[in-house]
Fold:
Amino acid sequence: MERKKWCERMEKKTKKIIFITVITVCILIIAIYVWIYETNKGSSFDDTEMPCYPAVNFEVQNNTIVVIHLGENPDCNISASELIWENIEIYEKYGNGTLPTGAIDVGDTITNCSGIVYIKWKPTDFIFYSLQIPDSNNPPIPIPSVSLTSSASKQNCTITVGTPTIANVLWADVSYTLIDITADIEISHAAVSDISHAVITKPASGYVTGADTITIKHSGADNWHPSYPLVDNHEYRFTLKHEPTGGIMELVTWTQ
Structure:
C-alpha cells in the first residue's frame, strides 16, 4: 500500500518536472528568436542590393575599348580619388586588355583587347561592364549589293543585274525569292502551269557581273492567261539574297 502511494507521488513529481522543462525550453526558444530579431532589426543588408560601381560607359573601336562617358552613380558614393584605373580589373577568363593608369577620364583607352572583355570594379569585386571584341583574324564578311532593273512583257519579266559592290561573288552563293504581292503568294521555280509556279532562270555558275540577267516566264503558252504567272496588273517583288552572309543584296518591285 505504501509502495503504491510512493509510486503515485513520484509519477506526479515526474509529470511536473516534464511540464516545467517543456515550458522552460519554449521560453528559451522564444527568447532566442527575440534576440535574433532585435539584433538584425534595422540592418540594411538586402540580398537584392546592387553592389557599388562607377557610372562609366565604354565603346569598342577596332581592338580597343574607349571611355565615352563618365558620370555619377546616384546609388554609390564614389569619390574622385577612387575613380582611378588602379581600381579597375579585367576578368581574364574570356578576354584580355591592357588598362591605362591614373584617373579615369573620357577618351581613355584600353588597348590590346581580345575576346569578351569583362570589366570589374575592384572595391566591390563587381563586374559592371562587358564588351565583345571583333576577331581580326575572322572579320565579318561584308554583304555585297547590286542594282536590279525589271522589264516586264506580257507574262514574262527580265531582271537585269548591275555590277556588285564586291568582286568575286559567286552565283552559286546567290538565292532568290519571287512574291506576288497582290495575291500574297510566293512563286517557285517549276514548269507547272499554275499561279504559284514559273520558270525562273538565273546564271547557275560563275561570278555575278554587270548586265547579267534573270528571266521569269510562265510555263504555259506565250499568250496571256489569267491563271498563270505573271498576272496582268499584279504587283511583284523579286529579292536576291547572299547566302554566306544571309544578307539581302537587293530587291525590285514592279507591276506586270
